[in-house]
Amino acid sequence: MSLVVVGSVAYDGVETPHGKIDRMLGGAATYIALAAAYFTSVKVVAVVGDDFAAEDVSLLSSRGIDLDGLERVAGKTFFWAGVYSADMNERTTLRTDLNVFADFNPKLPPSYRSDPYLFLGNIQPALQQGVRSQMDRLQLTGGDTMNYWINGSRDELLETLRQWDFLLINDSEARMLSGEHNLRRAAAKIQAMGPRTLVIKRGEYGAVLFHRDHHFIAPGYLLEEVFDPTGAGDSFAGGFIGYLAGQGLTPSNGHLDIAALRRAVIYGSVMGSFCCEKFGVDRFRTLTREEIEARYREFEDCTEF
Amino acid sequence: MSLVVVGSVAYDGVETPHGKIDRMLGGAATYIALAAAYFTSVKVVAVVGDDFAAEDVSLLSSRGIDLDGLERVAGKTFFWAGVYSADMNERTTLRTDLNVFADFNPKLPPSYRSDPYLFLGNIQPALQQGVRSQMDRLQLTGGDTMNYWINGSRDELLETLRQWDFLLINDSEARMLSGEHNLRRAAAKIQAMGPRTLVIKRGEYGAVLFHRDHHFIAPGYLLEEVFDPTGAGDSFAGGFIGYLAGQGLTPSNGHLDIAALRRAVIYGSVMGSFCCEKFGVDRFRTLTREEIEARYREFEDCTEF
């Protein structure tokens, strides 16, 4: 079933110990959509400037991603630049030019409004709410947020989260949002805010899924080389929601159970791990579904006992 | 089959956000032996001063731990004191009084010399070698080390490791020993130094087992409350080697395979998680084998997909 993804489509400048790219396709919605498109049909809602390259449109289109909701306005596309530390566990933002993204006010094409799956990438909570209210047959809604909204727009964020089925955030954000250092207690507090399903991402260490009173601990894949971690968290999100949408799993049909969610988390980890193997979205230019399934089996092999 | 454990038996002063204890039973060999004794018969080689309390001897004896190798000399028992940060991810050493441990030169009682399993806790590599050379029917040898020896006695350590079947260290030590940040590459280099089996501990994130060309990623148990992490790594070691010894698994009988090692790592994680639930060794005063098995099943439940 179709998945609507809202978020940033951007250009990134990235420097890692393996090299430097001044400008490449990036943005949360880009990674989420590219990863999810391996599993389901994807529709993007985002805004780009008139500098957005035809080849980048082509890449997304070539994956069957619906770009009717990709608004193009006069000005420049959102640009972010950052540099990673030698061990790649820290990154410093060098530049954030919101450009046309500063006035982003997502409007859904009529063809998007009856879709059942919605992933709200990290944008202002009020805008996330606005998108949700434009959809009339939602069966599964969730998304992402960040420290900026947790600290700066807490009430607005809490009102937004109340309507979500799931939330994906990283461990430091979960601690900030809940005020609890302990992950289990943090999760319980966040679940009480609305999302019954919570995925806490832990970077190289994997992720923990909390669903009602169950939890599932997924390891991070041990890559022999982390080339560029940019977009790994968003690729995780794309694999997670893409798998659920592709399988048609929803709370109302009773199939969105802990077993399905566990598999979704592993597909998320798989997609995040592939993302790190090359600069930016490059790994997704060649990645095949067969490679995804092979890595899923590798996860089974390196965790079963 | 019997396991000989060599290392420190000490008194610790510990402060965590949950409280402060000025003096309690501690030391690597203590934790290793207490944890391993749930699975197999254990013999300790260590040194204490004449201040070592009868009640602490009683605790160890009550678990069937053989103390013929516990040397008692004039002077004070090794004392360590430290304080944990608010999130308990860092600790600062406040005091290290080696006392009688400064002249520790382990001598094995004749009744220990024909045992098949040897765990060499973190002491000077030359002393670890000396212990090993006193044993004549070893089937499985391994142990622990630390940054102090990796940096300060590298050649001596490398000579020692060459004779080990397995090594347990934490991730920062693995990186220091190998000179590689990437865990898989670090593991390959360390395995080439001798130990074909390597367990890299990652604190709250669990551990990774490398055995020949396999690896297994074990999660850390998600405790609702970490009371005191002191001794958790040593309790992990005790669970790991205790399980292998208890089952009589050795390289020569062909049963020390990847499946057995995976189970050993989970038992290690189980014992490490229990250790954190109370101050010092307190959790081991009441812990039962049934609780251990129940937590092992919890590990299965929170990792399978």
Overall description:
Two copies of one chain form a homodimer. Chain A is of the alpha/beta class and 305 residues long. Chain A is 35% helix and 25% strand. The first copy, chain A, has helices at 28-36, 54-62, 125-133, 147-152, 154-161, 171-178, 183-191, 232-246, 258-275, 283-286, 289-301; strands spanning 3-6, 10-16, 19-26, 42-48, 66-72, 79-84, 91-97, 117-120, 140-144, 166-170, 197-201, 207-211, 214-218. A nine-stranded mixed sheet of chain A has the order 5-4-1-8-9-10-11-12-13, sandwiched between helices. In chain A, a hairpin with a 2-residue loop joins strand 2 (10-16) and strand 3 (19-26). The mean pLDDT of chain A is 96. At the A-B interface, helix 7, strand 13 and helix 9 of A face helix 7, strand 13 and helix 9 of B.
Number of strands of chain A: 13
Mean pLDDT of chain A comes to 96
Tertiary shape of chain A? globular
What structural class results from the helix and strand content of chain A?
A: alpha/beta
Order of helices and strands of chain A: EEEHEHEEEEHEHHEHHEEEHHHH
Helix content of chain A: 25-40%
Q: Strand order, biggest sheet of chain A? A: 5-4-1-8-9-10-11-12-13
Strand content of chain A: 15-25%
Main sheet record of chain A: 9 strands, mixed
Give start-end ranges of low-pLDDT stretches of chain A.
none
Counted by DSSP, the helix tally of chain A is 11
Largest interface: A-B, 33 and 32 residues
Distance between the termini of chain A: 34 Å
How large is the radius of gyration of chain A? 18 Å
Oligomer: homodimer
